[in-house]
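Extended Data, panel c. Modelled sequence:
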Amino acid sequence: MKVIGGAVAGVLGLILLIVIGIATLVVEDDEAAVEATNGGSGLQGVPAEFRKWILKADAECKEPPMTPALLAAQLYQESKFKTSVAEATSSVGAQGPAQFMPSTWTTWGRDDDGNGRNSPWDVGDAVMAQGRMMCSLLRQAAASGYPGGPRALALAGYNAGWGRVQQYRGVPPKSFARGETYNYVRLILSTMTRFQGPALVPVSFSGSGPGPNALRRASTELGVKYSYGGGTPSGPSTGFCDGVNGYLNGQCDASRTEGWDCSSLVQYAYWPSIKLPRTASAQYSATSHRPIARDNLKQGDLLFWSNSSGFIYHVALYAGDNKVLHAPRTGKRVELVPMASAMPAGDYLGATRP
């Protein structure tokens, strides 16, 4: 059991640490809903409950050295993905799968999973706090000019506190704390490759800018269920049924399903850099001054479909290679599919660029 890990960043005087081991298509519109409510084998051993939050934490950080594999390898080193009090409490009081000390948790911890409590024992809260802290440390590392690379420096800061990195102007040497921090950094960097691969990142998007960034953020939701009226800029949520939409097998599926509808996913993808409105038709109105021809589509462009009356009922993100990333309908999940099969071809209205 690791004694302290990341939590020590706020407790610079605490340096005695212990290392753990090596670590049919039914078209539903979104507008009515909202107006009514205003890798591969490398992932062996990573619990499914951690994957979504690792992807989210990675997507929230724009520092290039941050990757899902880095976060996964770090979590393995901290706790081997353990979540029980007996298995994930260190002898000096570090808590949870990301091993935060209470004093450090007050800085980085939030109720990210929305369950009403802010706890280092909740996987979502812990991983997102880990991501925020690491992202901040990566920025400090990049600006420091110290040798060793930003990942090594950030990991050292997470383990021993940034003050120790400043003291040694780099990763603390083997002589510091009996080599705890030195080995912590070395082990995580050496085991990152086991957590790389398409099983953790089911799809990747190259390039930079708002469009690719939005796609990367939306891709963290692949596999999440559709929920009519569900989803906010903060994440998936339950929706509702309006007498027509949101039903599955005669029952209101949306009110019991935490997920996305098409426009909430698009809004989430671009938030907060571009604050799109909530509904498909409103998103079209907000971006229609920048129409994009079909042969000029780029990653992140918004694609719209409308019915015979002109009502815009669906929006999706263009993912490149004639594919779209979207939340299709009740009973389905967020998916990456060919544009030709996403919605009826005859309903395609056009594309815009936020």
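Residues 123-144 form the longest helix (22 residues). This feature is highlighted in the accompanying rendering.
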